[in-house]
Design goal:
The structure holds two protein chains of two kinds. By secondary structure, chain A is α/β, with parallel strands linked by helices. Chain A has a single domain, classed as Alpha-Beta Barrel (TIM Barrel). Chain A has 20 helices and 15 strands. Chain B is globular, with a radius of gyration of 20 Å. Classes of the chains: A alpha/beta, B alpha+beta.
Chain lengths: ~475, ~375
């Protein structure tokens, strides 16, 4: 009887409907995602795939002839083109919306991304909650975040991706941006994309679930579903729900077409989630000429999602990645971005080897910024404080204040570490360009993953699946 | 042409910014006065025609909880309304559908002022204004082919009515360096081509390097051929080209879905194709009018609103009206300033208004 979840039932008895969410006092100060190291582990990860360097490296020979010396890992070129944007490394800063923590540190993360020449995305509800131009709260407005990025771009590397939720549509955010003289030069330069968001890893099939303060609730209550009327019920925070939006194949195709038609100078991205019909989504979007598709696996991060949703809704990231592998094999040549608990250079190299064009990072950006708080560094080493710290980091940051330059430095350092890792691992594979990475470079530790991706199972007798087939014949 | 500035440029600056300097000097110029008189005459001729056809004129409804979705990226203007935010109409589409259904005559029109916060690049086309007037009409129990016939008779009537003033027109033409010497004799029926036929024709023209070069130079676009698509609106530069190679107004119809709002009806038996049309003026003037048969069944409109990513919540009154009283109708809107530009052969549409608002230009 010891493992019967008495405390969980107590908690539910106390909180009622609210018990479906993580502790409310963390909301807006933290980010969440599915735990994967439950014992036993519930699903397979990219960590169940390893990289397989070869002894014979003809591409290294080619590179040596080009350089007239032995190539080193620093000779790996991490530049790439993703969704039509020229980038210095195949990493995208995932879209974060208007919650306290994401928004507060948003401009500093933006500056770091611009400096590193990677794509930066702006999530939903920033303009509606924080204001488009003028600040509606003490926090940065939509344009402050956008221009922290755009003004710091160098040499045409990077690109800004702007999402619009169903309710942001009330604001006509995209039309506002498209007709805004401040954005126009960047639009002309081809540095802006609009992203249709039709899913998120942590909550596929659910709309945006967010808590907002009373002043915000009063302001937006006509445009959003807020179960408790802030005029009648006085409390600190209110649940705010966005509709997930209704899609059919026809609706998706028409939306893409219309956006391409209405905003001809803009690139069009699609962000979808771990849905079972992912293959059809990809096929339709590619047919309509989408510039890039981001797929967020179920381990993906979120500002808020029902616990049961994070646990049990959707396909794991590796399954989503396999949809990309299949699409590439079918000859679909749109750009693909994968995300969902991916955070290091190894994840990047494996994803690219399996068909993705870039990897999106969300939580790593937040934590690498917050990790620059001196206290955080001390606390994180102490097991005892570790959990409290991760829980309270956002609050610490808000209360102690984040030193902007430190935050930026934290993110830049983090990105540099990833870039360095990508260079080393790619070089180990005997390759020097991102687009050269392929399925031969990876092997699965689990039979299921070998079958799923059509890659080598590392415990098979030293030959590739192709050779095996020959042997069988 | 010599290097010396033409008479027109010396006396009436062609840049919209010029209105900031000395608006009185421009609007009081004898040629501009004559242009404004033509706007008046054209308006009168349109009313004559529509009244004789049994239409009822309404005063425009300027603001409401929602306006139609813009196309080609134009934003809407908003005004406070007793604690809510109302929108200034980008077109009269929702209200004219309501009134065509409600009125016994089943035929209604407006001289509808519209505001559209167009993207900056629309300001360089010479064909887009932020503030403009549409003659917006709707006919109950009609389809797009029936209203196309009204549109062509209307154009013919207006142009025929202007022939009595041809001497004054010639002065305007000469002043602005037009090569036109007489008003076209409009021959009905006007030429009709489908969107697909138009794209086919332009794809063929795009093989000619001199055509491509001219479009690149004139519109500052790269690879104009790659901008042609069977799935989207015809790009501005190609619309100009198509218009330039015609000497009579003409129709393009059956646009692909995705190029227009939810209110243009999709053929029930041809999915993906809309029952709509554009009327284009010749000689490079381009689009004068857009029209269509309307979606009127609430189930279809609801699904179509999702396709254009509209929030149905905002359209409550409209959806309720369709649910209870929706009937087939069709209609179109003719841009007043564009019609003046075409008849007077003006180099830019902003010259058709006394205090024009051009995208991105702050002027009186």
């Amino acid at each position: 009887m010891t493992d019967y979840p008495i405390d969980e039932i107590f908690r539910r008895a106390k909180l009622g409907e609210l018990a479906v969410y993580p502790p409310k006092d963390e909301f807006g100060y933290n980010v969440f995602g599915a735990d994967v190291y439950d014992k036993p582990r519930r699903f397979l990860l990219l960590d169940d795939i390893v990289l397989l360097p070869p002894q014979f490296t003809p591409e290294r020979l080619e590179k040596g002839i080009e350089l007239l010396r032995e190539p080193l890992y620093i000779d790996v070129n991490t530049e790439s083109v993703v969704g039509g944007f020229k980038v210095k490394m195949p990493v995208v800063c995932a879209a974060m919306g208007g919650t306290h923590i994401a928004n507060l540190i948003g401009p500093k993360i933006a500056e770091a991304c611009a400096e590193m020449g990677i794509i930066y995305s702006l999530g939903e509800n920033i303009a509606s909650i924080r204001g488009y131009d003028e600040r509606l709260t003490k926090q940065p407005s939509f344009k402050e975040r956008a221009f922290s990025y755009l003004r710091n771009l160098n040499d045409g590397y990077g690109g800004l991706v702007i999402q619009q939720s169903v309710e942001d549509e009330n604001l006509k955010l995209w039309e506002r941006v498209y007709t805004d003289p401040d954005f126009d030069p960047y639009i002309e330069e081809g540095l802006i994309a609009f992203e249709i968001k039709i899913g998120q890893g942590a909550k596929p099939g659910l709309g945006g679930e967010v808590l907002v303060s009373r002043d915000v609730a009063l302001r937006i209550k006509d445009s959003y579903y807020i179960p408790e009327d802030p005029e009648k019920v006085v409390k600190g925070y209110y649940e705010k729900h966005s509709a997930p939006g209704t899609f059919t194949e026809d609706i998706l195709a028409s939306q893409i077409r219309l956006i391409k038609n209405n905003f001809p100078r803009i690139k069009v991205f699609l962000k979808t989630g771990p849905y079972r019909d992912l293959d059809s989504v990809i096929e339709i979007a590619a047919r309509e000429g989408i510039d890039a598709i981001t797929i967020d696996g179920k381990e993906g991060g979120t500002g808020m999602s029902p616990i049961a949703g994070m646990r049990d809704l959707g396909l794991p990231t590796v399954s989503c990645l396999s949809a990309i592998t299949r699409a590439k094999e079918k000859g679909i040549n749109t750009s693909f971005i994968i995300s969902g608990r991916l955070y290091d250079g190894s994840h990047v190299v494996k994803s690219l080897a399996l068909g993705a064009d870039a990897v999106a990072f969300g939580r790593p950006m937040v934590y690498s910024c917050l990790g620059s708080i001196p206290l955080a560094q001390t606390f994180i080493k102490n097991e005892l404080f570790r959990y409290t710290l991760l829980r309270e980091l956002g609050k610490l940051a808000l209360n102690l204040g984040i030193k902007g330059e430190r935050c930026k430095k934290g993110v830049v350092n983090y990105l540099k570490s990833v870039q360095n890792e990508v260079k080393m691992l790619t070089s180990a594979l005997g390759k020097y360009y991102m687009h050269r990475l392929s399925k031969e470079d990876v092997g699965a530790l689990r039979r299921e993953l070998a079958d799923l991706f059509g890659i080598r199972y590392v415990y098979d007798r030293g030959c590739s699946p192709l050779l095996e087939k020959k042997n069988i014949n | 042409m010599s290097l010396q500035k033409s008479e027109a440029q010396r006396q009436i600056p062609l840049e919209p910014e010029a209105f900031k300097q000395d608006i009185y000097r421009i609007v009081s110029h004898p040629i501009m006065q004559e242009v404004y008189r033509f706007r008046h005459r054209i308006a009168r001729a349109m009313r004559e025609f529509l009244d004789s056809e049994g239409f009822v004129e309404f005063d425009p409804i300027l603001i409401g909880p929602v306006t139609d979705p813009g196309t080609r990226g134009a934003f809407e203007f908003r005004v406070p309304f007793y604690g809510k935010e109302y929108r200034i109409m980008r077109s009269g589409i929702l209200y004219k559908q309501l009134l065509a259904a409600a009125m016994e005559e089943g035929k209604v029109y407006f001289f509808y002022p519209n505001l559209r916060h167009e993207p900056i690049d629309a300001g360089r086309t010479g064909r887009h204004l932020v503030e403009f007037v549409q003659v917006d009409l709707e006919v109950r129990d009609a389809d797009h082919f029936q209203v196309m016939e009204i549109a062509e008779r209307l154009i013919k009537h207006v142009i025929a009515s202007m022939s009595q003033y041809e001497d004054s027109l010639v002065k305007i033409w000469e002043f602005f360096g037009s090569t036109r010497t007489s008003l076209a004799d409009i021959k009905l029926p006007l030429k009709r081509m489908t969107h697909k036929e138009a794209i086919d024709l332009l794809m063929k023209e795009a093989e000619d390097p001199s055509v491509v070069k001219e479009l690149e130079r004139r519109f500052n676009v790269k690879k104009p051929k790659s901008r042609l698509s069977y799935k989207t609106e015809i790009p501005w530069e190609w619309e100009w080209y198509l218009s330039k190679i015609h000497d009579q107004p003409f129709f393009i119809y059956d646009y692909p879905k995705g190029a227009r709002g939810f209110y243009d009806r999709e053929y029930p038996d041809k999915p993906g194709i809309l029952m709509d049309f554009d009327l284009l003026a010749p000689e490079g003037h381009g689009e004068l009018s857009s029209g269509a048969a309307r979606e009127y069944e609430v189930s279809r409109v609801f699904a179509r609103m999702r396709e254009t990513n509209e929030n149905p919540e905002l359209y409550k009154w409209y959806l309720q009206f369709l649910k209870d009283h929706g009937v087939p109708s069709a209609g179109f809107g003719i841009g007043m300033e564009r019609l003046v530009k075409y008849i007077c052969d003006l180099p830019s549409v902003h010259l058709a208004r006394p205090a024009p608002k051009v995208p991105g230009v702050h002027s009186p």
